[in-house]
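Exercise: predict the fold of this chain.
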Amino acid sequence: MTVLGLPPSEIDALAMDDYWFWCEVAEREVQRRGERQQQLLDAI
């Protein structure tokens, strides 16, 4: 979740429902960045 800039102290303070929500958000962000990187590589 460091991808989202959440410091460890905030991650530790999350309730489980909130934790899984942010895990899903982080996963989508990682996928988005990977797709963007692939688009840039394909353009070369």
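Check your answer against the key: The chain has two helices and no strands.
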